[in-house]
């Protein structure tokens, strides 16, 4: 596939929109908890964005609070981790996972294939984590 070096501003904008549609459709088709890759720079951008407080500064912190992390994730202790028990992929809160949206590193917050869940499962988890909102 050839890449044209002389793209117009409109062409670049159209390409970005196509990529965003593909990226958004991937989030909507595949539902599962997320995890943070070793590319994490521990910038803290994701921490205040998570509506479920599923993100922790390291694996030890998460597990000490009783929130498991997928085996192999955050083993070195210097990157943030997401507990699959708390992650709802922002279903019921936002159109896309906020951690991935605000992260300055591309593909740092990605789908965790070890924890597939349906949209209904994620909504039920949200209601369990936020019973005050489920009653409304």
Please tally the helical runs, counting DSSP H or I stretches of 4 or more residues: 5
Q: What would the average pLDDT be, to the nearest integer?
A: 81
* Strand order across the largest sheet: 1-4
- Order of helical and strand elements: HEEHEHEHH
Q: What does the main sheet amount to? A: 2 strands, antiparallel
Number of strands: 4
Instruction: Compute the CA-based radius of gyration.
Output: 17 Å
The backbone outline, from C-alpha atoms, is globular
Structural write-up:
With 136 residues, the chain is an alpha+beta fold. Helix content is 35%, strand content 12%. It has five helices and four strands. Strands 1-4 form a two-stranded antiparallel sheet. Strands 2-3 form a two-stranded antiparallel ribbon. The longest helix is centred in the first third of the chain and has 21 residues. The N terminus is likely disordered.
How would you describe this structure in keywords?
12% strand, two-stranded antiparallel sheet, globular, 4 strands, 136 residues, 5 helices, alpha+beta, disordered N terminus
């Amino acid at each position: 596939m050839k890449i044209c070096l002389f793209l117009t501003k409109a062409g670049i904008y159209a390409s970005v929109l196509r990529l965003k549609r593909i990226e958004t459709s991937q989030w909507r088709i595949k539902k599962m908890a997320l995890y943070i890759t070793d590319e994490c720079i521990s910038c803290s951008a994701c921490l205040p964005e998570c509506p479920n407080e599923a993100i922790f500064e390291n694996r030890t912190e998460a597990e000490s609070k009783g929130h498991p992390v997928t085996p192999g994730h955050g083993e070195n202790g210097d990157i943030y981790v997401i507990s699959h028990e708390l992650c709802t992929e922002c279903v019921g809160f936002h159109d896309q996972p906020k951690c991935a949206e605000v992260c300055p590193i591309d593909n740092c917050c990605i789908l965790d294939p070890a924890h597939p869940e349906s949209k209904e499962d994620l909504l039920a988890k949200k209601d369990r984590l936020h019973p005050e909102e489920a009653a409304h």
